[in-house]
Amino acid sequence: MADPITRDTFASVYQGQIPWEIGRPQKVFVEVADQVAGSILDAGCGTGENAFFFAARGHQVTGIDFVEEAIRRAKQKATERGLPVTFLLKDALTLSEWTERFDSVIDSGLFHVFTDDDRRRYVAGLAHVLKPGGRLSLICFSDEEPGTQGPRRVSRQELQAAFAQGWTIESLTRARFEVIPNLKDLSFSEGGPKAWFAVARRH
After folding, report:
1. pTM, rounded to two decimals
2. Average pLDDT, the chain
3. pLDDT value of position 118
4. Cβ contacts of residue 127 below 8 Å, gap of 6+?
5. Structure confidence by residue, pLDDT tens digits, 105-123
6. Helical residues (DSSP H) of the chain, grouped into ranges
7. Tens digits of per-residue pLDDT, 145-195?
8. Signed CA dihedral, 92, 193, 73, 60: sign only
9. Residues facing 2 on adjacent strands
10. How far apart are CA 103 and CA 11, in angstroms?
């Protein structure tokens, strides 16, 4: 099992080349945009590209991340683009303590950073903040991606187990993460790291 990725790990990434900082939303979210309804929580929002995409479509969006530099850059972008997204410095493992409720949640590359125990805390927190009937749209690294570079790989079975109680997985399909070209010190599959894209509805 890969070691958990810590706040310091992510903070150090923001001092250099950020693999997922592609300057646009991940394609999987663009493709399902019509199925994402109402108010949205972007869990692990980074510098906000997915959040901005949905805000431009008229959604009320809140983005959270536990890396201060990511939130600083996201807020700066919001000002520059004139888009009303709320960005908060917040640990996604504390969602169970939050009073906010959302119609939809998106997760672009957060689920796969957690240990087994933290994964259970995170899913419980998602169930807490997502309104009944609301949908989670999640993309994570797949166990079909070769090698060990990057985050922990996740199997189809692990995703199904994580959302077995209190959720219905409406779809679970193969996808790809888009990453910046010419990555230094990292090598992924041609076409982008292999991923799973899950859409789950909260009961």
Report:
1. 0.95
2. 94
3. 95
4. 166, 167, 202
5. 999 999 999 999 999 999 9
6. 7-13, 27-31, 49-56, 68-81, 116-129, 156-162
7. 999 998 999 999 999 999 999 999 999 999 999 999 988 878 899 999 999
8. negative
9. none
10. 30
Phi, psi of 97 (to 5 degrees): -95, 0
Beta strands in the chain (DSSP E): 40-43, 61-65, 86-89, 102-108, 130-141, 167-176, 194-202
Structure tokens at 79: 């000002």
Alpha-carbon distance 193 to 144, whole Å? 9
The one-character DSSP state at 154 is: B
What domains, with CATH codes, occur in the chain?
Answer: 7-11+29-170+179-202 (3.40.50.150)
Residues 6+ apart with CB under 8 A from 141: 109, 112, 150, 151, 152, 153, 154, 177, 193, 194, 195, 196
Euclidean distance between CA atoms 146 and 39, whole angstroms: 36
